[in-house]
Amino acid sequence: MIARDFIPSSRAITLGGKVASRRGQTIIGVSETNAVQGHYFTLTTYGIAVIESGKIIFAGDALTTDNEGRAIPAQECQQGTFAYALESASCAGELIEILLNG
What burial class does residue 50 get, using C-beta atoms within 10 Å of its C-beta: 0-12 exposed, 13-18 middle, 19+ buried? Predict the structure, then answer.
């Protein structure tokens, strides 16, 4: 995929090739590497991915994103969940494994 903006690694990516910037966006995968605008980058689109947490997360939580493309727990019945946490995060900034919704 071609980066439309700077892409940090381990962030949720939208169909438009940008970091997810709000809850409820359609997420197509998680970036595997950093990328600068206009360059190709790889992303995980199904199965297990590694993402940066934006809050405390418990294993099994349904996930959505914050305004930086980091994983945060989804509220009950919230639309826009894209994955489930396979590991817990005790604070923002931790890298955790997730299972992407397919």
Answer: middle
